[in-house]
Amino acid sequence: MPNKRPEPTVSAEHIAVANSVQNDYIKGTYNEEDFQILSTMRYDPTLPASLSDHVPKNISGETTVLKPSAGAIASDKFFLFDEHVKRINFSLGYFHWDYELSAQMLLDKLNAALEVEDVSKSLKLRVMIGNDGKVRIEIHPTPECDNLLAGLTTELTLWEVGIDKNPTDVTPFTSLKTTQRDHYDQSRKNSRIEVGMKRDVIIYNPSKYVMECSISNVAFVRKHENAAGETVERWVTPPLVCGCICGTMRSWLLKNGIMEEEPVMVKDIRVGEPVLMFNALMGVVKGKIVAEFSESEA
């Protein structure tokens, strides 16, 4: 079970706002037993070597590596391990669940879950934490990938990306990753997207600002004028204020200057334009905006 959370150091004003959201929306709409905090992680035996081969030259890609006990798996075999720990604990604090999950505790639980698995292959791990502090881990197969940052360099379009028919309300469940995912399921249903299809759908808020895709964050190419007065292109991803999930891959890309935050309106999206889709399971892949999905799906 996670450790008891220390007393917060944020201001009374911020605590009051969080309490208001907690009481007025979350507790008024859901029982805390109805959802769990979720983090979907990638175990990959080729890490970190396979990632370092593709990290842009100006980025170190270094993280703190926890030394495991004899025979155990080190933290650098779990993609973006540090980012997952940070987000899990932020979410625990946001929902006022009086626990924290240390990096070592998470690593120990991941190792325990993998004891009976074939760790020579990549795996998807769904880490779920309940309001009672209990941690449950589901393990599923996932495709091998020799370059988790492939979308940053390839011109090959892998995914078709449509736009949802209806807006999605911004709630704590769009900003924080939990098992309460009805809004994503509905968007996929609207677009007739099934599991395994290389398709996704842009989700946007009632003000028509892009939030994300149904299974990943998203970025677009946009132009701006630099300090020298030159017009240059760069990747931009919607800011958290628009209601998108605080994704771990998103955090890493922003932290390392690979993209910037900028609001994107649905009306400014053009059919045929490239997008990046990214999460901590598949890394970064490239997609293309389509008006309609193709007839066949591989």
Automatic annotation (TrEMBL):
InterPro entries: Aminotrans_IV, Aminotransferase-like, BCAT-like_C, BCAT-like_N, Class-IV_PLP-Dep_Aminotrnsfr. It comes from the Eukaryota. GO terms for molecular function: catalytic activity. One of its GO terms (biological process) is carboxylic acid biosynthetic process. Pfam families: Aminotran_4. Belongs to the class-IV pyridoxal-phosphate-dependent aminotransferase family. This is Uncharacterized protein.
